[in-house]
Design a protein that fits this description.
By secondary structure, this protein is α+β, with helices and mostly antiparallel strands. The chain has 2 domains: about 160 residues, Uridine Diphospho-n-acetylenolpyruvylglucosamine Reductase, domain 3 (2-Layer Sandwich), CATH 3.30.465.10; about 100 residues, Enolase-like, domain 1 (2-Layer Sandwich). Helix content is about 35%, strand content about 25%. It is built from 12 helices and 14 strands. The strands form 4 sheets. A 5-stranded antiparallel β-sheet has the order 4-5-10-6-7. Strands 11-12-13-14 form a 4-stranded antiparallel β-sheet, sandwiched between helices. A 3-stranded parallel β-sheet has the order 1-3-2, covered by helices on one side.
Length: about 260
């Protein structure tokens, strides 16, 4: 690693001040620490958010579940409000990485990093969540802007994410066996107003699929999506799977997610 300063702010305001001075925000550290070890990142300082109690916690607020940015994956997976109101989100959190990752990784860190194969962004986008920061609220549809890219300013801090409670929802992923990231993951959510479906792992970032959503709005069944064409031109290809393979996986995972949501 390169030399850097380390600070542990006690409030969001203090963390924002440090970030404004050039410090890199440290949440769970699953990506940042690895980047430091590989000398792919060289921040002058780190501001560890772990000591800011106001950034963690889960609460029910009307027809939404609000989860603090520093809430660990393991907590999301076992929280009573999440399990009863959005069990698909608890299920997703309970299958991220391994136990060590779930014990340290955070919701806010995952969403802010926006790895193109991360699980949480698909839940945020499919559920139409709102990302609350220290200065504004950003709709999920406006938040994810590309590979490892979001609408956040360099010194902006996610404080919480507000998830609307769906009628039914499910998440299914085809895991890359070594990393356990999604080669393709599909999160589907049905609301009274319609259906939202988000895909992770397949392309350069999480995205909604209009064709699958339209088919499911007409009939929320696995058969409804069987005939929807998935364009391989929108997919990534690598040593783990070609673009055509991932396009096929999107359809397969979508059918499985709908079947899972229906119970």
């Amino acid at each position: 690693m390169y030399a850097f300063t380390y600070e542990r702010p006690g409030s969001t305001a203090e963390a924002a001040r440090l970030a404004g001075s050039g410090a890199k925000l440290l949440a769970g550290g699953q990506t940042l620490l690895a980047s430091l070890k590989l000398r792919l990142a060289n921040p002058a300082g780190l501001a560890d958010l772990a000591g800011i109690t106001e950034l963690a916690g889960i609460r029910r607020d009307g027809q939404t579940v609000v989860i603090g940015a520093m809430t660990r994956h393991a907590t999301v997976a076992t929280n009573a409000d999440v399990l009863s109101r959005i069990p698909a989100l608890a299920d997703l959190a309970g299958h991220i990485g391994d136990k060590q990752v779930r014990a340290m990784g955070t919701l806010g860190g995952s969403v802010a990093n926006n790895d193109p194969a991360a699980c949480y962004p698909s839940a945020v986008l499919a559920l139409g969540a709102s990302i609350e920061t220290d200065r504004r609220t950003i709709a999920a549809d406006d938040f994810f802007t590309g590979m490892f890219s979001t609408a956040l300013a360099e010194d902006e801090i996610i404080t919480a994410i507000r998830f609307p409670i769906p009628t039914r929802a499910a998440y299914v992923k085809f895991k890359q066996p070594a990393s356990r990231f999604a080669m393709v993951g599909v999160f589907v959510a049905q609301f009274g107003s319609g259906v939202r479906l988000a895909v992770t792992g397949g392309g350069n970032g999480v995205f909604r699929h209009a064709g699958l959503e339209a088919a499911l709005a007409k009939a929320f069944t696995p058969e409804a999506v069987a005939g929807v064409s998935i364009d391989a031109g929108d997919m990534n290809g690598d040593i783990h799977g070609s673009a055509a393979y991932r396009a096929n996986l999107v359809g397969v995972m979508a059918r499985r997610a709908v079947a899972k949501a229906l119970g």
